[in-house]
Specification:
The complex is a heterodimer of chains A (309) and B (519). Chain A is mostly helical. Chain A has twelve helices and no strands. In chain B, strands 1, 8, 9, 10, 11, 12, 13, 16 and 17 form a nine-stranded mixed sheet that branches. A four-stranded antiparallel sheet of chain B has the order 4-5-7-6, with helices on one face. Chain B has a two-stranded antiparallel sheet with strand order 2-3. Chain B has 519 residues and is of the alpha+beta class. Helices cover 30% and strands 22% of the residues of chain B. Chain B has two domains: 206 residues, 3-Layer(aba) Sandwich (D-Maltodextrin-Binding Protein, domain 2); 223 residues, Dipeptide-binding Protein, Domain 3 (Dipeptide-binding Protein, domain 3, Roll), CATH 3.10.105.10. Chain A: Keywords: Cell membrane, Membrane, Transmembrane, Transmembrane helix, Transport.
């Protein structure tokens, strides 16, 4: 096709097949918007939130258990009501969501780094190394992720002295979820690596005498990252859910600095007494966030898969 | 086909076993389990209540807290001790006879170094055997309230203890395990069938009990299953999984009352909730300041003024508590209308007092709190964290199960802690000797006032009631001025009970199955 005039940068950007697919998929646009808003809201929580729920000096017990503002008895400064201690629900959700996203991202990064490294080594080196790594991954995949996370988390907490437990709880959770995540990444990367390893450019690199680690890092790794990105996005949603599950079971983030899962657990105690908003709003926030990230991951899988295009 | 057959067989089996369970089984729950089955190891409400279904004392209290004969039939005071006539023909669960020898042994055991009942038991200096069924409990001078002090000192079989190598109580603080921790051999209305700590304790009716036929209770089997999570506990009651919840969360009482076939009973409890502040150590363990601010009365007063007792009553306790300025409730000799009102709530004055004491910017400290013992214990602590933050004190909350919390207090390892105290004797001496005497085994505040110590000792032998009461009042006034504790409130008890069982609520929060009638 002939071009009358050179394409502007924007047009060239729009012409990119991934962007094209994105702009023609309303689901993806909605999901991305929600995810973006959620992430921005959580990152800038200290600026947006009307109160700082972690500052006990701002809490008044007399304001405890107030319903959302539009219900009789609610107060306008507490839009989504307050919890049993008088903390503003909207603020706790923003801060809690921040913690959830942070834990999710960190856990996925940990799982990704670990999985991709092991996957590339496994696929490139092959032989016994490959067999050992992949069998470990297989064994781990047979154990439900959440059980494994509870196990790692439990050991991590028991190993810490009591005084440090609360402080390090968040890192323990990140490690627990990250360690359960890596086999997915390892498997996908290994497959992609084996395909790439036989291509001419890799053989060329080998012939000119580059060391193995250099080939893996500079040549193979960049070409295996597309599928990893898809898994990472879906993995983020799963990691957020995993953190919420751990916290809901009382194994995760402590109530003094609550994540969404912790908020849902604390609120759960008040369901019978009709204070539904303490558990409902954090739960809705969690569902919307995870749903949006998941949709995004789904779209990315379709957009990046040449067979589906 | 095979599968259908199996179902048919299992249904038939169910129908056959159905009528067999027609015995009266009471299933109940509360948030925390008895800490041990050893009757002299832990002086703690739920532990005493659980053991009191298996073991018995010489004298007991009924659900109205009136003294009643149990293993003793009658008693009589003398100048140097009390004579108790023991009940005849009483047998322990293993079949051996209950005699004066067992009384001697039980008091020796309760006075052992590892016993947690020393403060009560040491009032009995020795036990004199008059005959097989008469004993004289010797006291150090006249003791006007001895029977009151005996209601939770349980009688054990000497032979059984010797045979199982449990002549000394379990050292709970040192996490010792002995035979008596999971096995029990008492004289009481129920025998221990099985015990899985924190999971399930099963008791069965003792057909050879001396009281058989004398009490209205008709329960054949008791299944006690502690459930930590409050919502789960209520769900269990609502779904009929349990017949009785000892401690439903206060916010759910309306829901339970509104449910078909369930009701709630409430009563003012003989238990006060308070915080202790350790003024005894030279340097606080968990604070960023040098020295110990709690040594200064002004700091202790500031803490008292910073806590909004009324807010805790209304929001945390749903109105079910009585804010107070004492650590012992009305109903106990020594609680007076003059001393009972709280110190009030005045954060501005509290801040000024802190500044005066040299801490204008406050300091940090850890608050040790149980999370499965008292009504809304952890939530009270969370509320206190926020209230103390407003006078500049940064509190780090450590809320843990009672089995780990209580040793911290008994080993005097806590700077700032929550504790609740019930009074089975209904007399202030019990409070003084455990919580205010410098040597008191549950006094982790380091409070050591010579006059209070002196009164604690004097009232054990003072038989002139007027003089004795005057001394008790004097001690309380001293305590009120010294403020070793931060009193919060007296608890109000609420029990959630299914209509198929008739249970009388008792102000000491102890369930007495011998009176419980299933319909």
């Amino acid at each position: 096709m002939q071009q009358d005039r050179p394409m502007t940068r924007w047009e060239r950007f729009k012409d990119n097949d991934i962007v094209w697919s994105f702009l023609h998929s309303p689901g993806a646009i909605v999901a991305a918007t929600i995810t973006l808003i959620a992430i921005l809201a959580c990152v800038f929580a200290p600026l947006i939130a009307p109160f700082d729920p972690f500052d006990p000096a701002q809490i008044s017990l007399w304001d405890g258990k107030l319903p959302p503002a539009w219900i009789d008895g609610g107060q306008p400064q507490y839009l989504l009501g307050t919890d049993n201690q008088g903390r503003d629900m909207l603020s706790t959700i923003l801060y809690g969501g921040r913690l959830s996203i942070l834990v999710g991202l960190a856990a996925v990064c940990l799982g990704m780094v670990l999985g991709v490294t092991l996957g590339v080594i496994s696929g490139y080196v092959g032989g016994v190394t490959d067999a050992v790594i992949m069998r470990i991954a297989d064994v781990q995949l047979t154990i439900p992720g959440i059980l494994l996370a509870i196990l790692i988390n439990g050991i991590g907490r028991a190993a810490l002295p009591l005084e440090l437990r609360e402080e390090f709880a968040i890192y323990v959770v990140i490690i627990a979820i990250g360690l359960t995540d890596w086999p997915q990444f390892a498997r996908v990367t290994r497959g992609a690596t084996m395909v790439e390893a036989n291509k001419e450019y890799v053989q060329a690199a080998r012939i000119i005498g580059l060391p193995g680690w250099m080939i893996m890092l500079r040549h193979i790794l960049p070409n295996t990252l597309r599928p990893v990105l898809v898994i990472a996005t879906i993995g983020l949603a799963l990691a957020i859910i995993a953190e919420a599950t751990l916290s809901f079971l009382g194994q995760g983030i402590p109530p003094t600095t609550p994540s969404l899962g912790t908020l849902i657990r604390v609120g759960n105690e008040y369901l019978f007494s009709g204070l539904w908003w303490i558990t409902f709003f954090p739960a809705i926030a969690l569902v919307v966030l995870v749903f949006a990230v998941n949709l995004l991951g789904d779209w990315m899988r379709d957009a990046l898969n040449p067979k589906l295009r | 086909m095979q599968f259908k057959k199996m179902i048919a067989v299992s249904i038939a089996a169910l129908m056959v076993t159905g009528p067999a369970t027609a015995e009266n089984v009471l299933r109940w729950t509360s948030q925390g389990d008895a800490l041990t089955m050893d009757p002299h190891s832990q002086n703690e409400g739920p532990t005493i209540a659980m053991n009191g279904q298996i073991y018995e004392s010489l004298v007991t209290r009924d659900a109205d807290l009136v003294l009643q004969p149990e293993l003793a039939e009658s008693w009589e005071a003398g100048p140097d001790g009390w004579t108790f006539k023991l009940r005849q023909g009483v047998k322990f669960h293993d079949g051996s006879d209950f005699t004066a020898e067992d009384v001697v042994f039980s008091f020796e055991r309760a006075n052992h170094e590892a016993s947690d009942y020393k403060e009560q038991a040491k009032n009995v200096t020795s036990v004199e055997v008059i005959d097989d069924h008469t004993v004289k409990l010797m006291t150090d001078g006249p003791n006007p309230i001895l029977p009151n002090q005996l209601t939770s000192i349980y009688m054990m079989d000497k032979g059984w203890a010797e045979a199982n190598n449990v002549t000394a109580p379990q050292d709970f603080k040192a996490k010792e395990e002995t035979f008596a921790v999971r096995n029990a051999n008492g004289t009481g209305p129920f025998t221990l069938v099985s015990r899985a700590p924190d999971e399930m304790t099963v008791l069965a009716r003792n057909p050879n009990w001396w009281g058989e036929g004398k009490f209205p209770g008709n329960i054949d089997k008791i299944e006690y299953r502690p459930i930590t999570n409050a919502a789960t506990r209520v769900a269990a009651l609502l779904s009929g999984e349990v017949d009785f919840v000892l401690d439903p969360p206060l916010q759910d009482l309306k829901r339970i009352e509104g449910a078909d076939g369930l009701s709630v009973k409430t009563v003012a409890q003989i238990r006060s909730i308070f915080f202790g502040m350790d003024q005894g150590v030279d340097k606080l363990r968990t604070s960023d300041v040098d020295g110990n601010p709690f040594k200064d009365t002004r700091v202790r007063e500031a803490f008292n003024l910073a806590i909004d007792k009324d807010a805790i009553q209304r929001v945390v306790m749903e109105g079910l508590s009585f804010p107070t300025g004492m650590i012992t409730p009305p109903g106990v000799l020594g609680n007076t209308p003059e001393n009972d009102p709280s110190y009030g709530f005045d954060p501005a004055k509290a801040k000024a007092l802190l500044a005066e004491a040299g801490y204008p910017d406050g300091f940090s400290i850890r608050l040790d709190c149980p999370n499965n013992r008292y009504n809304n214990d952890e939530k009270i602590c969370q509320a206190a964290v926020a209230m103390l933050a407003k006078i500049g004190v940064k509190v780090n909350l450590d809320a843990i199960p009672k089995a780990q919390h209580f040793p911290k207090i008994q080993n005097r390892e806590s700077d700032f802690y929550m504790l609740g105290w019930g009074v089975p004797t209904l007399d202030s001496h019990y409070v003084f000797s455990y919580l205010l005497d410098g040597e008191g085994s549950w006094n982790a505040t380091g409070y050591n006032n010579p006059r209070v110590n002196e009164i604690t000792k004097a009232i054990t032998t003072e038989i002139d009631i007027e003089k004795r009461t005057a001394m008790i009042d004097e001690a309380w006034e001293q305590v009120k001025a010294d403020m070793p504790y931060v009193p919060i409130h007296h608890q109000v008890l609420a029990w959630g009970i299914a209509d198929n069982v008739d249970i009388q609520i008792a102000a000491d929060d102890a369930f007495r199955p011998r009176f419980a009638v299933m319909k």
